Amino acid sequence: GVGMGNRTQASQASQWSAPAVKEKIDPIALELYQHDYFRIAQVRQSGRAESFIDRSLWTRLRSLGPDSSTRDAGPGFRSGGEVMLFHCSRYNDIKEAIREAFDTKFEDIPRFVMWQSQQLLTFAPKAAFPKFVARCLLPIDNEKERQHCEKVEQFLAELDTLIPNIRPFQRDGIAFALRKGGRALIGDEMGLGKTLQALAVAAFYSNQWPLLVICPSSIRFQWRDQASQWLKHLVRECDVCLVKNSKTVVPDDAKIVVISYDLISRDNNDPLRTRPNGEKYKVVIADECHYLKDRNSKRSRVVVEICQNARHALLLSGTPALNKPIELFPQLSALLPNFSTYNEFGDRYCMKEQNRWSRRIEYTRSKHTTELNLFLTNTVMIRRLKKDVQKELPDKLRTKVPCEIDAKSLRNIQMAMREANIEDELRAAGDLDDPEMSNKMGNPAMAEMYRMTGEAKIKAAEDYIDMLLEGECEKLIVFGHHHAVLDGIEKKCIKTLKMEGYIRVDGTVSSKAREDRIKKFRTDSKCKVALLSMTACGTGLNLTEAGTVVFAELYWVPGTILQAEDRSHRMGSEHTTISVYYLIAEHTMDEAIWEVLQKKWQTVTSTLDGRAETIEARVGETVKARQPSRGPAAAAAGGDSPRLPPRLRVFLSSAVAPPNEPR
């Protein structure tokens, strides 16, 4: 009930008296929970901040008269528990009242969160920022800012003339980025036109060009084509320089320079990181910015510095955080230099745990996701979901298709696990009951089991693809991860569809050949199947001609899976439904990987969208692959697939990182 504090605060406070001896309680975490309200949580021994607080603390907070309340059913909290909220203007008063009654420590709302709240700004430490950062972090109201807003409104009024048929939500995204001074993270779901929005924002600053576009190598040509398509009044195709290798010389009159993450971060490529005259780029776009998730990589260090030095920087990604909140830090640092230290951000929004294999302490999982979502959306991020803004998009229907694999393959997978003695190692470590162990895929045995599971499904995948093609499916996309799996399915395609009936694109295909093959799939009615690598082709491709997507293998990162799905599910599709089929080998790692995907997607969505969601899928009919000939020994063993041992299932369900394997 909003406003309850105004009616009862005085009477309740008068009924409470300070104890003679302060009670010692777990540390207190103050968390921004709504735009002008904060909550009180307790940091338990696990490190997680919980809404379920000690009764004595609850009684004291109730006596102070909360200004509002809500129910919290988010991840990590006891479902349905009441959360008392206090207006931010009472921040210090509430802290002092708790300090009078209890012996405890406080974890304050971070300074960078306080800076973007008008109510908390008075409690925040002072800091000096460049003007372009201050516009994102601090509430500003002066004559210069009003003049900037007038220019933005004039540009938006002319936008329909410059870019016909622009959607209202795209206009909103452009307006958001411009009001933030051209420093923003456009995090719209895949297929909602982030490229168009970024180009429109960049056009506003065309007097500060050349524009630098940094993107995955596979989509450089798309940026060239879309720039000349959407910005005809500013750019011709000859004005766009595609940097194809380290020897490329950027013309002095180039208006747009497009370069890959790989090329710009290579050693001795310093000249490609500046304008032809040696000056720093003033306008920069970094597409698929989740490529910057590892702050220690050369790629991240180089690109983050370029963005920090630019006056206007736009980051684009449908999945800015693929696994956990700490992946957002390099991206936020690119837009908001020195807004926080790495450890300050990680300690606030992640848990610290030891990597079982490397023995290093790492930031994993998440906490305070509601506050982080508020910080992101109040400062630099705008994110829209398809279901909210694109009612005309086709429905996406996911189906889990159980696959039976032969008993011999399943026994081999389990034997590999036993030979690695992984169960004994975990039992000795005492972690078998802990479902949050990290980075299991750093272990070679796990990577081997992952490969074996994929290869065991090849026959089932072939049969399922045959069934779809025999039905009403005109074009379909098949995703895999391991080359051996793609090779096996390709042999079947050659046999049944011939060379003209399919394409294959993986990390070994050159950019030119990739472009030609994708064009063939989109325009040639005889080309029925696109066989693609998830990691090499999961982003940047528009394949709306296909209404069916099949995953012959799973992957450990939910963002990779969803990016791949949306090669087909995007604007321009004429299908009424996009059917997505996940082939799940029964009683194998697949079942555990699916559980991992659900947990990690809940973490990501609670951070980016402010609410935890799951990857919903119905269960289809079981696919029975053609079985190999059975000798007497196999027949005696029986045909039923053995189930995974319980301890092995616990181990697999905790895996959270992909294998270190090339594309």
Automatic annotation (TrEMBL):
| A GO term for molecular function | helicase activity
Which keywords appear in this protein's UniProt record, sorted alphabetically?
A: ATP-binding, Helicase, Hydrolase, Nucleotide-binding
In this protein, which residues make up the domain named Helicase C-terminal? Answer: 460-612
Gene Ontology terms, cellular component aspect? nuclear replication fork
BP GO terms, sorted: DNA repair; replication fork processing
Coiled-coil region(s): none
Residue ranges annotated as compositionally biased, kind Low complexity, are 625-642
Question: Which CDD domains does the protein's record reference?
Answer: DEXHc_HARP_SMARCAL1, SF2_C_SNF
| Protein's name according to its UniProt entry | SWI/SNF-related matrix-associated actin-dependent regulator of chromatin subfamily A-like protein 1
Species this chain originates from: Vitrella brassicaformis
